[in-house]
Structures
1.
Amino acid sequence: MTAACGSPSTSSPRASPAPRWPTTASTSCSPRRNFALPESGKISFSASLAAEAINATPYDYRDGFAAVVLCDPHNGWVYDLCTNGDTVFAINEHLAYPGVTSPFTRVVNDPLFGPSATPGQLYHCEITIDTADKRITWQMDGKTVHEELVAELPTSLKMGMGIFTVHQIAEGASRSLRGQGFTAYWRDLRVRSCNRAPGRLPAPIAC
């Protein structure tokens, strides 16, 4: 995964041939930058995101989607807020890193009460982690996509972006490419963090 703080856009003529890794990505700050999670407080990662799938199956995010990505490169935790232009969803993932005995990729969509999406429209995405409560909240335009209490949190995260597919590989070959394409645009990436200490106020973290 790559960290990014700026206003890059990416475009892919086809969806990614490999599941869960970006086809293209642009970065404007160091990918080595880690954002430490507060010991007892909140940290929020936000960005504006627009996305549109081309010749993809409608409402099938597996064909391709864009994401605001939070990644723990040491232990493989990933938290994404995603859209393919017509669907909004959250991903909570534990990658198959060495020592991870039960990897998973969980996609959560709220079709009745969650936010809707329009292809090409810019949305404000925000992922907030409350380390005191061990709670992660995914929101788009202020509306909750998913909220989850977790047993374990990383100590730091990288922030990035990407275009992905999630079709499973069969017999060693990708099934992702069927002539579809994708375009996405990100801007206004920000990180805010605060500890629950007396007199401590939230402050932005500069990239």
Note: The radius of gyration is 16 Å.
2.
Amino acid sequence: MPGDQIGNEVTGTYIEPNLYQPADVPTRAIAAEDTRQLSYDLPHITSVYRGQRILEFYLRKAQAERRVTWPMNIMGIAISTLDTVQLATERYGLSNYAFQVSSWGLNQDFSVGLQLEETGPEMFDFDPDSYLEPGEMAVLTPADAIGDPTAPRGALRVVASDPPFPVTSSASSLTIAASSVMLDTGQSLVLPSVSIPSLTDGTFYNLFWNTGTRAYEVELDPAPTRLASPSFVFIVRQGTLNTDGTPPDVEAPPPGYGGGGGYYGGNPTPWCQIRETPPPGCS
């Protein structure tokens, strides 16, 4: 095996599903005097536990150092890449190992050369008790807002949401899908799904999450009480449909409104994020 493929410690990264950012997979290692580290990026893996299983396989593969070039006659043409074979020879103790065909070639004299690498069922076994829990992710302290530092802050704001558009409406209800959200304070929340019935058709409502009671609340627009309280998370401003199924009249969002990646009324244009000074196009 080439020296750069031998290792006793394997590290890697996966994509953290809530933040859409690379995060470290807990290191898989075998105790040894000299550390030889291998590193793998797993850009299509969104589970830290699946990432550990993959790294454990790479670690065991890095310990299986035997590589063999095995000549055969024309009968070797029946063997395919990725086949598992065993060598019928007592030399060097090779008959005690299973090998996987990594490649093969046909020579001018119609002999076949097989490239073999060591394999075995133990490379694919995994003990669930060996999972390692990921370390806590650091949370950046948000910068102080520009303005009066003594002024009380209002409702918490959603800066990212998965899924990005969790609220749908009918003539008399709002339906909220379960979602993971990131707040402007750096905190993350997992919000449950719920349907809020008995609402007035063709009316704009403001949807909040009460951090004290851990329940959704709605308030007719403009909802000045809850918007001014840090005990609430502002989710979205959404209009119920008219009785004929059409969206309510769509007006420009008032200054400081928006948020959460939801829809503004029935218009499929993402709302502006909540902010003291609305960006262009939000007023």
Note: Residues 156-270 form one domain.
3.
Amino acid sequence: MRVRIMTEADVEAVAGLYARSWWFAYGGMVPAASAVPAVSAVSAVSAVSVIPAVPAATPVERMPTDRTRRVDLVAEEPDGRVTGWVSLGPYDDKGEPARATPTPDVDGAVHTLYVDPDRIGTGTGRALMASALTSASALGFHRVRLWVVRDNHRARRFYEAAGFHADGARTQVRVAGAPLAVVRCTYTYPSPPPP
């Protein structure tokens, strides 16, 4: 498995992955009628993703660092199947409690991370997160934040193992009419040692 920059050719595969993974993660937390149809999954992926004009073989380490400071990465199996997706960029604090206001010049965000349910526990998510954190640092972010559903215990354990910690910010979002409590987690890069 390798992690590479997402290209336009990956949108349909990522949309299918998104729909399967979303339902696997949240199916027991929201009404059954809210299953993510493939058409809306394509729209969701297209809306979130910033797809650069680079070849699919471009290594993550050589990604372009354009002004958007955003990148989408995919995990790809040797057979070419896309089995994971992570989208990151500047942190957007809209709707966040006023007590903690990060600055876009410092804080990045994992906007979404999904792994095909049959690849959970194989290292795919860890490889995506490691590449995302490396990319975020290369984009100049000093911290990376994300929001996670409070009751998604698997995801919370995953993020904690990756070095994120709940930072006290909480809110509630509505998904298909169902209220879901979410907590914010933060990853802070180690400070360089003094000279």
Note: Residues 37-42, 50-67 have pLDDT under 50 and may be disordered.
4.
Amino acid sequence: MSKKATLRDVAERAGVGLATVDRVLNERGETSAATTAKVIEAAKAVGLRRVLPEPHRAIRRLRFIVPPPNSPFRQRLNDSLRALRQRGGSSVLVSLSHADPMDAQAIAAELAKNTDDAVAFCRWGQGDAVMQAAVSGLRAKRQAAYSLLNAPEGLSCDGFFGMDNQAAGRTVAALAKGRLQEYRDVMVLSPMRDTPLQDGTDPNARQHGFAEAMARYLPGSRIVAVDGTRNDPERVFALASQAFAANPNIGMVYNLGSGNPGLRAVLMAQRERRPVFAVAHELSETTEQMLRERLLDFVINQQVEATLARAVEVMLTGSNGVPQPGNGLHYIPFAVHCIENLPSRL
């Protein structure tokens, strides 16, 4: 594995001191145009992985293809992208377009007409021939392609930005350690095996991580699988109510998907009999309310802003001509919220 380039490598290549390299790369001034150009060329030559100073960077065009803002999570994603576009500056142009993340043909059509330096897209579900052909077409034009929020199995692209969902599932099991005493079964609510979540991730990855960690943190507990919620509040309410009626030993609920208004109604009714330990995903008005009402104990929240910031950083570095490793997994840490650490902005 090649050594990561350092500022000292740049200084040696350019024949200048470290202080001069620092002044040039951090735009502190007091260097001639010739010295500045020499340092920039040296940084490119040694493969220094950072965004170059503004005056020496050509305009970079980045494109994001995301779902329309028709759910709280998707609205948050779109709002974050619009804010990012406004902060881009004169040398970074961020464009935004919409496509149904379940529609491979629609995403492929957007990719086919791309003219930007790099593009990140949301594709829920698995990779397929249509998507792979579209990504290969971008590579033939020397345009980088990245998967955002979901890493479709079987799709070869330049990288992935999002949370590690198996780690999220394992974290939920760890949070439940010691909390299930008399009632030890765990209701796990899932959309369906072939239905991705509203945020694009595979519910099976979360469930697999949770099941893997149960032996360590919840010995003696078993999963009561409730599939088919389709992220619909009414179905969540109906199916979870049925599961509680049929399984008196349920002491915990873990919702892999959305439809949390339905879960709130179920937990309100259940609390009249006995409370249960409950965890959901994605902080929203509904899940924040449930935390304040102590219907939820924890919410696992995907860090959308940090994910997009990392995506832009890598996309810009790649478009500066620095080689990037193929299929790089850029896992962004997720946040764990409880009633004690709710963001003041919500």
Note: The radius of gyration is 24 Å.
